[in-house]
Amino acid sequence: MLETLKSPSAMQQWSQKKHSEGKTIGFVPTMGALHRGHISLIEASKQENDLTVVSIFVNPAQFSAGEDFEKYPRDFDGDFKKLEQTDIDALFLPQASDMYGDGFATFIEVRGISGKLCGAYRAGHFTGVATVVAKLFNTIMPERAYFGLKDYQQCVVIRKMAADLNMPVSLRFCETVREQDGLAMSSRNAYLSADQRHDAPILYRALCEAGSLISGGQLLKFTDAATLIQQILKSSAHISEIQYGSVYDSETLDDISEQDAASYSGKTVTLAIAVKIGSTRLIDNLLVTVP
Ligand code: AMP
User: Fold this and answer.
1) Which of 24, 160, 177, 202 has the largest count of CB atoms under 10 Å?
2) Which homologous superfamily is 3-174 in?
3) Cα 119 to middle of ligand 1, angstroms
4) Ligand 1, closest atom to CA 147?
5) What separation in Å is there between the alpha carbon of 151 and the centre of ligand 1?
6) Which numbered atom of ligand 1 lies nearest the CA of 41?
7) Do 20 and 28 contact (CB within 8 A), yes or no?
């Protein structure tokens, strides 16, 4: 039966009780407006754990001023129905005031990688993410936690935080679930007009074409792949801003478009994009193994 827990202390007590009964807990953090990408994380958790807990919390700390916190899609009734169908064990549904009480003063900053890629455009975003994920881990105390590779930088930041702070949780990073035309599923896709939605798969097309160049093994440097990403994105009538689009080191997130491909032979590099279509910010990425 799906139990809903609203306060961190009630959630913590629930988890402590389940642990005392010898159960393992898998945890899927979300901001709601659930889609098949979220459901895939839930399914992965159910396969590996006795119990699965999902959180829905639109975390104000990870939105900077002028971003879409207020209008971020919220569909609690729809989410609850979807969760009932997935047969999870508990839903953690805190209020912002439960998570950030008066005088809240403790933040987790994962230095270096948090300032790159999306971090350069979203001041404080990854500090907000790391802080809330740490709080959620302390509240739910899962054996395993599930994140989508769709938010690749988020995965890298959380992996670093968990390692640096010796957090006793195994992290699982799951494949991006896509619409039939290749667009990565995202709650923010709901913002797109019909014309914008029609054009949006261009992100994935740019990644795939550049990825094929790299996996074809003919490149001396990654420059041509990065240039191809830019060319394809610039051909879109609806992309109003290209924030980044290049080839990155999968660990450091540094742009490696000028590096020799041979120095990455056998390794996986990350092709990543962030654009605005109208006022909607979309990101996507593709991991490619260099021959
Ligand atoms: P969000 O609700 O957008 O904060 O996402 C919650 C979790 O779902 C994060 O770990 C995301 O990376 C993951 N996620 C979002 N979209 C997808 C997708 N299309 N495929 C797989 N995972 C996703």
Assistant:
1) 202
2) HUPs (3.40.50.620)
3) 18
4) 10
5) 7
6) 22
7) no
Pocket test for ligand 1, best of 31, 35, 38, 74 (most atoms within 8 A of CB): 38
Give the pLDDT confidence score for residue 1 in this predicted structure.
76
* Nearest to 264, CA basis, from 219, 229, 224: 219
Ligand 1 in contact with 177 (CB < 6 A)?
yes
Average confidence (pLDDT) over 166-171: 98
pLDDT band at 127 (very low <50, low <70, confident <90, very high): very high
CA distances from 277 to 178, 237, 240 (A): 18, 9, 6
CA–CA distance, 102 with 104 (Å, rounded to integer): 6
Give residue-wise pLDDT tens across range 194-223. 999 999 999 999 999 999 999 999 899 999
Q: What residues are labeled active site?
A: 38
- Ligand 1 centroid to Cα of residue 198, in Å, is 21
- Contact in structure between 69 and 58 (CB atoms under 8 Å): yes
Does the beta carbon of 196 sit less than 6 angstroms from any atom of ligand 1?
no
Residues 51-73: what's their mean pLDDT?
A: 96
Using pLDDT thresholds of 50, 70 and 90, give the confidence band for residue 145: very high
- For 187-286, the fitting CATH number among 2.40.50.140, 3.30.450.40, 3.40.50.300, 3.30.1300.10 is 3.30.1300.10
Query: Would you state the pLDDT for residue 218?
Result: 87
**Encoded tokens for 99:** 């998570």
Give the HSE-up count for residue 179: Cα atoms under 13 Å, Cβ half-sphere.
17
Decide: pTM greater than 0.85: yes
